[in-house]
From TrEMBL:
Needed cofactors: Ca(2+)
Name of the protein described by the UniProt record: Arylsulfatase G
Catalytically driven reaction(s): an aryl sulfate + H2O = a phenol + sulfate + H(+); Hydrolysis of the 3-sulfate groups of the N-sulfo-D-glucosamine 3-O-sulfate units of heparin
InterPro entries xref list: Alkaline_phosphatase_core_sf, Sulfatase, Sulfatase_CS, Sulfatase_N
Family, per entry: Belongs to the sulfatase family.
Keyword annotations from UniProtKB, A to Z: Calcium, Disulfide bond, Glycoprotein, Hydrolase, Lysosome, Metal-binding, Signal
Domain named Sulfatase N-terminal: residues: 29-369
Residue spans crossing the bilayer: none
Source species: Rostratula benghalensis (greater painted-snipe)
GO CC entries: lysosome
Amino acid sequence: IGTPSPLSVLLAVALVGLSAPQAVCGQPSFIVILADDVGWGDLGANWAETKETPHLDELAAKGMRFVDFHSAASTCSPSRASLLTGRLGARNGVTHNFAVTSVGGLPLNETTLAEVLREAGYSTAAIGKWHLGHHGHHHPSFRGFDYYFGIPYSHDMGCTDTPGYNLPPCPPCPRHGTAARVARKDCYTEVALPLFENLTIVQQPVNLSSLAARYAEEAARFIQRASDSGRPFFLYLALAHMHVPLGVPPSPPASGKGIYGASLSEMDALVGRIKQVADRHGKGNTLLWFTGDNGPWAQKCELGGRLGPFVGTWQQQRGGSPAKQTTWEGGHRVPALAYWPGHIPAKRTSHALLSTLDIFPTLVALAGAALPPSRRFDGLDVSPVLFGRSDVGHKVLLHPNSGAAGKEGEIETLRLAQYKAFYTTGGAMACDGSIGPAEHHQPPLIFNLDRDIQEQEPLDTASREYQAVLPALSRAYAQALQDISTDNVSLADYSKDPAVTPCCDTQRLACRCPGAPAATLHPPTQRRAPRLCL
């Protein structure tokens, strides 16, 4: 057989190139859309019973769907901190949620994804929920983002004039001359919810009815500006959906979807609009990654999301919810999609074990940047999976305690291949008000998720399968804890001070500022009047 001619080799390479995902040329732009409290079953591509997500389903059809993808924690602040640092809360210091009065936030010695990308020449923006500290240099404007527009924490952490739907229902903000309010459990009634643009409170209370539209407008404006500048961009879009209170579009479709379904449709339309804008300004050079911060909030009943098959039967039989705040699959297995025409193969389903932790190192690698030194990362560069060249992710994945049981942030659940070991279990508050008591397990409960995705029946400790896998799980657990204990670990400041509460006008009831000049945060070194936020 003769040696192939140079021309035939070139033709063969060209033909392969037509069918294979293209190599990355130059610096791509990135859009990370993080939904809040979204269930794995809230995506129609995941769960056939869900009909409200045609735009997300289109993303799945034109890109890659991940079916074994996990949030780095099962509650808001730790999950977001891990996404933006590539490190678990046991390393970055964020182990539970920050409050309206929190002085601290994500420790300042932790490097965010935005900081790395901005140093690499990117325009950066955060739009939506932050929840990693709003006082001083913890504000997103000091954490690598050129532009910020959003709410500094969850949108149920302040009153509004448009309360939306919640369980229990929460009253609107008080006004001058109104009668004394009745305190309601789980409702914030003293301070109105603020909306920031950079360091300025532009609205307090926020109008939740128009919030989704404003987020979409600001995202589109940022993408347009970045495209016009010729620089690559990083947009971190952290949606209010599907966290309560749920709002309903002004004219919800009369399709019997209910409140949750109508809100899910609104989120889907918002994502569809962002995709459309990205396609218009940077198709072929913009990676869009959609996922969630944790599973659904089950205690909100019909206002909570859909678990799909991840129902945590073992825990449900003992009381409590196996969703948000727990280390059951329903708490941390989240929908995830990646879309990048010409690079990510279409109609591809990945079964690789992946995490939101992987977003940081993957985008850093694709940008041609370097990971921050002097620290270890829990995430992986999973670009080979994105490009369809591999379907291998983590061998071991750690699931930190997130409020339901055990000390928050500690690692007492881990995954090794298809096996999942629990050293502590517990259920969060369920719709019926029950809470599953914390139970410690030594030896651990072990489930084989390949056979038992519902987490119904742990392996019999006397079985050959249990005895075969226990040594490997024990070694992996010990090695993980040792690795964390010898790392450069941060410690978050969780102290509180009412003086740091974001407040537009301390002289007005609930800090209202409609019709008044917006309140701008002062530089961190300046002294402030009580209750002015920084």
